[in-house]
TrEMBL record:
The lineage of its organism: Bacteria, Pseudomonadati, Bacteroidota, Flavobacteriia, Flavobacteriales. This is Formimidoylglutamase. Keywords: Histidine metabolism, Hydrolase, Manganese, Metal-binding. Belongs to the arginase family. PANTHER family: ARGINASE/AGMATINASE, FORMIMIDOYLGLUTAMASE. Transmembrane segments: none annotated.
Amino acid sequence: MEHLKPFTTSDLKSLLKKRPKETKFGEHILLLPDFNDIYEQMLKLDVTYVIFGIKEDVGVFANYGNSGTYSAWDATIKNLLNVQSNAFTHPKKVLILGHLEFESYQNKVSSLNQNKKKDILKARKLTSKIDASVSFLMSQIVSAGKIPIVIGGGHNNAYGNIKGTSLALKSPVNAINFDAHHDFRAEEGRHSGNGFSYAFAEGFLKNYFIFGLHENYTSDTIFKTLNKLKAIQYSTFESMMVRQDTNFNTEMDTALHHISSKPFGLEIDCDAIQNIPSSAMTPSGFSVNKARAFVNHFGKQDNVAYLHICEAAPTPETETQVGKLITYLITDFIRAHENI
Ligand SMILES: N=CN[C@@H](CCC(=O)O)C(=O)O
């Protein structure tokens, strides 16, 4: 498959840090022996989760955001492989597939200027090409009966995740989004701020819940749109964590009620977590432990169809912490789902 870079045994060897009397996660995960007909191979494998990365920040650029989401996969994989293999982490249930790489698009975008309208349009066209790869890979994994765990890239990739899952299941799907932003901007060409509006308009997304929307970053027009649509519900960060009109657990239950009657995507935007390097880093947001509790709550649902952790933008100084954060979220998800 074009753009898919396999994760190989030599990649594994170079990242795994073995230690006597310990067994690391990476010593028990599965890899594909070759990359011909990955669907057929996945079908035969006794794994539940297929992990892959998306190395891109084209969609964030196309939405005037700060780049860096390209690096989240590399930061994550070196950390994930080196956590412990034990009764809590379930590595034998995991296939590490590899990552989607868009080198020529990334190079192209590095020569574009966000202040030029025509350059933004070029980046939006490239984003829709990325959509095609993401949705195809997602549809292959979901059709093979597995749960994709998708790491990295901008939130534009929610579109490909939802579309691919919906095509595989031959039905629209629901989604829950832990996010400071609605990502329901106008259909003005694809970017990181309109993955859900495109998926909704095209009939791939049915019920959508935005959890922890920041009131300062949602326009009046968008609030009117969201309030008009029955299929969309939201709770704001301020209503839970500042004014305390409601609370985190009550809102998780409201959200669950809205989305869990059919297969749903679990979308975690790292810009909802306080002080995490991301495309829109925030000094006011949910704690890491709240994010972990959220993943646990939705990860343990029968109908969860995939997990996507996106928008983290690590630097060389922060990559260990970001990799560790994403690893906690991945293992929380697997642990919750295994204990259903
Ligand atoms: N949830 C993420 N959202 C996008 C868009 C934010 C916005 O459009 O305001 C991002 O940070 O890139």
